[in-house]
Design goal:
Strand order of the largest sheet: 5-4-3-7-6
Order of helices and strands: EHHEEEEHEE
CATH topology of the largest domain: Chitinase A, domain 3
Oligomer: single chain
Organism: Pseudooceanicola antarcticus
GO molecular function, one term: DNA binding
Family: Belongs to the GreA/GreB family.
Protein name: Transcription elongation factor GreA
Structural class: alpha/beta
Keywords: DNA-binding, Elongation factor, Protein biosynthesis, Transcription, Transcription regulation
Number of domains: 2
Low-confidence stretches: none
Distance between the termini: 29 Å
Strand content: 25-35%
CATH architecture of the largest domain: Roll
């Protein structure tokens, strides 16, 4: 199996979610199923079916998280420097609009574009890998061609 790169922060978030699901969510849904069973006929018991559906989702997510955590390759960006690599926090300026954006290049599991966490497999991240401060980057995005200049690279 292929290792899954992620930052220490992303790894800790996944571990916290897994702990929450196992220690809080799973016992809660088991209690809800037991209560619903006490109400009698299960064939027409909406509470029971809802709780079973939630249990199925929780068990699936636990299995998914355990798989990802087992394959995690935790990379500490603080140990890196130089050109853009996984974990870099990159400030870019759009050469057309002069709009500045800052993204951190992270693993697929922790990516969240609204929070400034850019998936390593995204077109922008792939175009940035290996670039230096001052370099110009051409990116083919679903919205068309974009040109960015790399203003700053930070590893924290």
């Amino acid at each position: 199996m292929e290792k899954i790169p992620m930052t220490r922060t992303g790894y800790q978030k996944l571990e916290a979610e897994l702990k929450q699901l196992k220690s809080v969510e799973r016992p809660s849904v088991i209690r809800a199923i037991a209560e619903a069973r006490e109400h009698g006929d299960l064939s027409e018991n909406a509470e029971y079916h809802s709780a079973r559906e939630k249990q199925s989702f929780i068990e699936g997510r636990i299995k998914e998280l355990e798989g990802v955590i087992g394959l995690a390759d935790v990379i500490d960006p603080k140990t890196l420097s130089g050109s853009i690599k996984f974990g870099a926090k990159v400030t870019l300026v759009d050469e057309d609009t002069d709009e500045e954006k800052t993204w951190q290049i992270v693993g697929e599991q922790e990516a969240n574009i609204e929070a400034g966490l850019l998936n390593i497999k995204s077109p922008i991240a792939r175009a940035l890998i290996g670039k230096e401060e001052g370099d110009s980057v051409e990116v083919r995005t679903p919205g068309g061609e974009k040109s960015y200049e790399v203003l700053k690279i930070v590893y924290e």
